[in-house]
């Protein structure tokens, strides 16, 4: 049996659950999944400005806390915190290890950056148009699979740092390595992928993103424990967490996470497999223990998905609040004023009433007059000066708009869009580079 | 008698591009056949007509006593370029649970 812990579910995740897992979880492997679709494009943008950067912004904080514990407990770390610069990240880790007087071997996995291999002919999946129509392309990263991590695992590196590895593959790789599974053993690869998919969002498996007071109570979310899986030779796994940590694991939390983001549960695509979730069996076998088995597989897709980041301009936003008698009507009036002044210049102008209909973009049932309401205005612009007009106009409602407006705020941000394309596998060659001190 | 899905089941929303993915998991697995019967793709499409512009595909998963709804053209273009407050559509699981069925 091997035990694999999940110490981060996104780039900005809490730091201490991974430390608790490493200290008390009796892990063989710790995985930190820190890369969302847009994260890598933003990292590429930083690398373009400074060639030594482009790895995860929290890399140093996480490694600083974990390095001595990993070393002492002989836990191997696998992470995609390399983002757009795995080699730069490995160098940074070496630097930190030297400062701490710790001997360490780090493997950087590269080759997911395929910007050079795109010729503009590839079809953008979301639009059906050729890639050459997309101006301002910033990054192109292929989702690489568990096979790209195997040479690094065979190298005995204690830390394996990669970029755009598919999330479940980060967890699948140590299973394949430890048990010597054939990558053509479809059911084992699928079952391992199911386990990886469950673990990839960390706290979302142990009661995070689950609580609903009086309906779905979750204990001690302030000290949420992150999950680990005890994986057996056929991929059957038991999900658990460190005793005394917050949250819980039961059939409900595991079902929610298994189905999370699965666009086709009969054929969940990764670089490693087409996994069928409709054969998965879940069983509660103890307190905070769920057994997962039965994932079935079909061959992996012939192509790899490539995530493309591109500059798409700026968004300007402005907000202002109204409260007390007739607040909703005053906010509606404020929105109408903005609409009249800006609609010609910003055809996609968006007006939301926070407190009524801003997040669902509508409301269900009868509308009750809210005590307070916040008007929010947003629009796209080609440059930051034009984007700033949105917030300026909202702020000007102070002296030109309805009575009692307060708390105006304005924001301008650059927008990196993400679309995708497919690339033949043979165009993607991954490598490892080892650093040791 | 009408009942809200909120009283019978829980849901988590996910996103892929402009596609919204909604799970529906009954608290009591015995309610799974009722949900299969009443929560049809057409009924969900009607309930979410202001939100989901494209097709809704339903997957039945008797192994988990759960349903999965994959809703196309639902996120104003998707997380990276949408002007919406909730660009991922993460809060939309609770829009779904507002749906009422006859029990």
Structural class of chain A: alpha+beta
Give the C-level CATH assignment of chain B: Alpha Beta
The helicity of chain B comes to: 10-25%
Distance from first to last alpha carbon of chain B: 6 Å
Greatest interface (CB-CB under 8 A), with counts per chain: A-B, 51 and 37 residues
How many H/I helical runs of chain B?
A: 4
If you compute it from the alpha carbons, what radius of gyration of chain A comes out, rounded to the nearest whole angstrom?
A: 24 Å
Mean pLDDT of chain B: 96
- Helix/strand order of chain B, N-terminal first: EHEEEHHEEHE
CATH architecture of chain B: 2-Layer Sandwich
Specify the oligomeric state.
heterodimer
Strand order of the largest sheet of chain A: 11-12-8-7-1-2-3-6-4-18
What's the main sheet of chain A like?
A: 10 strands, mixed
Beta-strand content of chain B:
25-35%
Number of domains of chain B: 1
Share in β-strands of chain A: 25-35%
Low-confidence stretches of chain A: none
Please state the overall shape of chain A, judged from the principal axes of the Cα atoms: globular
Instruction: Indicate the CATH topology of chain B.
Output: Alpha-Beta Plaits
Question: What does the secondary structure layout of this molecule look like, with pairings?
Answer:
The complex is a heterodimer of chains A (437) and B (103).
Chain A: E1 2-8, H1 16-24, E2 29-32, H2 37-49, H3 59-73, E3 76-79, H4 86-100, E4 105-110, E5 137-142, H5 150-154, E6 159-161, H6 167-179, H7 186-199, E7 227-231, E8 237-241, H8 251-259, E9 268-269, E10 274-276, E11 281-286, E12 289-293, E13 296-298, E14 303-323, H9 327-342, E15 350-354, E16 372-381, H10 384-395, H11 397-400, E17 406-424, E18 431-436
Parallel strand pairs in A: 1-2, 2-3, 3-6, 4-6
Antiparallel strand pairs in A: 1-7, 4-18, 5-14, 7-8, 8-12, 9-10, 10-13, 11-12, 14-16, 14-17, 15-16
Chain B: E1 2-4, H1 5-8, E2 9-10, E3 13-16, E4 19-26, H2 32-38, H3 41-47, E5 56-61, E6 66-71, H4 92-96, E7 100-102
Antiparallel strand pairs in B: 1-7, 2-4, 3-4, 4-6, 5-6
